[in-house]
Amino acid sequence: MTTTVLSGLSEKVFSFKAVDPPLTEITPPQDRAFSADPEKKSLLSAARQVKHLTPYIGTEIVGVQLSQLTPQQKDDLALLVAERGVVFFRAQDLTLEQQHDFTEHYGIQDRDPNQVDPRHVTILGRGGDIRQYGRTGSGEYHSDHSFEINPPAYTLLRVVRTPEFGGDTIFTSQTALYDKLSPTFQKTFEGLHAVHSSDQYFLNAVNNDVKTFRYPVRNEHPLIRTHPVTNLKSLFYNPSFVIHISELKNQEAIHTLNFLREHLHSADDLSVRWKWEPGSVAFWDNRVVVHRAVPGGYNVEEREGKRTAIYGEKPFYDPKGQSLSEWKETHSL
Ligand SMILES: [Fe+2]
User: Fold this and answer.
1) 142: CA distance to ligand 1 center in Å?
2) What is the whole-number distance in angstroms between the Cα of residue 183 and the centre of ligand 1?
3) 41-60 pLDDT per residue, tens
4) Which of 39, 69, 83, 231 has its CB surrounded by the most CB atoms within 10 Å?
C-alpha cells in the first residue's frame, strides 16, 4: 500500500461503491482459552524448549508442529497467547488449508475490509521509510482493524517467503503499557472511549487501487479494556486508527493521543522484535498487543505471508480487572 502521509478525496473515492455491507455486532463463541489447563501441560510438555524472549511479551516454542496439535494443546496455546501476547514458532509445515482449519478451532474467521479471499489475508513486503508513515496504515503501530465493532482476537501470521534480512515485525504489549502508567493516569483513562476510524485505511486502499469491500467505519471502544479470560486490564490504543477520545475536548484529545503515541514508541522494554524465516509463525492476541512491520531496505517482492484471524468480543471495560503487576502476585510466567 501507499507510503504517502495523507490520502484524500478523489474521483476514485467519490465513485466508490461498496460490495459488502458494514459489519454488525456478533457474539463470538466462548474463548478457547477458557478450556485451557492453567498450567498448559499438554502443550508445554510436548515442546523441546519454551523460550520467553522478553520479560513482558513473546514466547517461542521449539519442537512443536501446529499441524499436529490436539484440541487440548490448541486451547492451552490460546491461554499462553493471551498471557504472553504473542507466541512464535519456526519451521512449521502447516499448509494454507491446515491454517484455515487451525484458525477455525478458535472461532469465526474474521474478514478485513480489504480481504479478497474470505479465509485469509495475503501480507506482502513493504517499502519506504518508516518515518514516512504517520497515521496511515501498517508501517505504523496498529492492532489489526481495531475500527471494527468486533476487532480480531487470536491472529496468526505464517510467513511463506522472506528476504534474508529486513521485514521484521515488532510486537508491543498493551497490557504492560497500561501497567506502566502512573496510578493517576490509569484512573484517568479508565472509562474513556477512543474513536477508531478506518477512514484513512479506506482512502489509501481506494486511491492506490487496492481492492476494498466496505465503506469506512468508526467505532468507539474503551481506552482501557479488560481481557475476558485473563481479567487483565490493558490499553486499547493504536496510532493508525485512533483519531479521538470521545469524552475529551479537541485539544485535550490531541495532546492525550500524542502522549499515548510517545508512551507506545518509548516501550522497547515492553516489546519483542521477531525476525522471520520461511515457515515461521507468529500467533498473537490482537486484543492486547499492537504491532508494526518494519518497512524498507529489502526487496518487497521477497516477503509474503498468510494471515488468519477470528472475531473477538466487542471490547469492554470491567473495573474489577487486574493490572499486570497485581496479576503477577498470583501468577508466574
Ligand atoms: Fe497488521
Assistant:
1) 6
2) 30
3) 999 999 999 999 999 999 99
4) 83
